From TrEMBL:
The keyword Repressor does not apply. One of its GO terms (biological process) is phospholipid biosynthetic process. Keywords: Lipid biosynthesis, Lipid metabolism, Membrane, Phospholipid biosynthesis, Phospholipid metabolism, Transferase, Transmembrane, Transmembrane helix. Residues 1-25 are annotated as: Disordered. It is found in: Membrane. This is CDP-diacylglycerol O-phosphatidyltransferase. GO terms for cellular component: membrane. It comes from Croceibacterium salegens. PROSITE patterns: CDP_ALCOHOL_P_TRANSF.
Length: 297
């Protein structure tokens, strides 16, 4: 047995360095002792992650043959699977570093490379050279976002996360937003939504949002009142039914709704920062005077 095999079989002390990247940005890590291979219950969430990876890459296969609806369906399905694998891992108490690493790699391929290639084959290839650069930029920004998240996971100072927010647009959401022109093109049949320059500018904008430092709302930051929870359940059921009956317009509505709520997340985080700044000022000390002409003194 080689030394590397011995190291793999030896139990590893739990801690942030052992955990590595998590399966989801809005989940808290749970320290676990893991060694000797995956347990049977850990196979389930990792199998879902693998299914999400295969679904996202299969979207490229459909795009190559020009089946755009199936290409979108495959990548959207990958996003749905990605949204439940981490939750199932927590439910089964089967979090592992292997699963976290697999999830991070799957996200980069399913929501970075796959959407970039689908958009290139659909429209961006009509822009010689520049279209390919935009596709590369989208895939690169997705990878950079995931790398930034993985690098910050061990840091104690994460202002966005501690306040219940995310930094930038998550990779699965970014992929869904990038496809907004395709949803409109399929729903309306208007070729204007396939204009290469429009697709290039839109794709570049979404790529920027993924790597930006903009505070975006996470599921954990949503706290509906108890009187609205039953209505939220009903709305979720109707939304699912709408996806079955009119999927493309429903996806358009989801994208528009998310973009409309982004300013709300920015304003809410601004209030959090202001409250933190006020709490950091010692009692009894006056605030620094402010002169409009010369700025803070």
């Amino acid at each position: 047995m080689t030394s590397s095999e011995q190291d793999d079989d030896r139990p590893i002390d739990p801690g942030p360095a052992w955990l590595g990247p998590k399966a989801s940005e809005d989940e808290e890590p749970v320290a676990r002792r893991f060694g000797g291979g995956l347990t049977l219950r850990a196979v389930v969430p990792n199998a879902i992650t693998a299914a999400a990876l295969c679904s996202g890459l299969t979207g490229i296969r459909f795009a190559i043959v020009g089946d755009w609806k199936m290409a979108l369906f495959a990548i959207v399905l990958a996003g749905l699977l990605d949204g439940i694998d981490g939750r199932i891992a927590r439910l089964l108490k089967a979090q592992s570093r292997f699963g976290a690493e697999l999830d991070s790699l799957a996200d980069s391929l399913s929501f970075g490379m796959a959407p970039a290639l689908v958009l290139f084959l659909w429209s961006l290839q009509d822009l010689p050279r520049f279209g390919w650069l935009i596709a590369l930029a989208f895939a690169l920004c997705c990878a950079l976002r995931l790398a930034r998240f993985n690098a910050r996971i061990d840091l104690d100072d994460q202002p966005h996360k501690s306040a219940g927010f995310l930094t930038g647009v998550p990779a699965p959401v970014g992929a869904g937003l990038a496809f907004l022109p395709m949803y409109l093109w399929i729903a309306t049949g208007e070729e204007i939504f396939r204009t290469p320059w429009i697709i290039a500018l839109w794709t570049a904008a979404i790529a920027f949002l993924m790597v930006s430092n903009i505070a975006t709302m996470s599921w954990k930051s949503l706290r509906p009142k108890s009187s609205l929870r039953l209505a939220m359940v009903g709305f979720g059921g109707l939304l699912f039914a709408a996806l079955l009956i009119e999927p493309w317009w429903t996806l358009v509505a989801i994208c528009v709704g998310y973009l409309a709520f982004m300013p709300l997340g920015i304003m809410k985080y601004a209030r959090v920062r202001q409250q933190r700044a006020e709490a950091a000022v010692p009692d009894g000390l006056p605030a620094a005077p402010f002169d409009v002409s010369n700025g803070p003194k």
